[in-house]
């Protein structure tokens, strides 16, 4: 069985006052897997924000490939089910 080639993706955090760049990144098999990883990360960020009484409105994860292509934008509020 051949090994799946992994690709590096970066989860940058966009807030009202700027962009926090992810300089390490994480490896995923493809864009779809990176998007699901970003959704999971966004959920963790929401839990942390609620615990610390921080705002989530306007915050989002911007998923970029190593080649600089924007793969997905995940607003934190989009992962909350009400």
UniProtKB/TrEMBL annotation:
Source organism superkingdom: Bacteria
Looking up InterPro entries in the UniProt record yields: DUF6894
Q: Which residues form the DUF6894 domain?
A: 8-76
Q: What is this protein called?
A: DUF6894 domain-containing protein
Q: According to the entry, what is the taxonomic lineage of the organism?
A: Bacteria, Pseudomonadati, Pseudomonadota, Alphaproteobacteria, Hyphomicrobiales
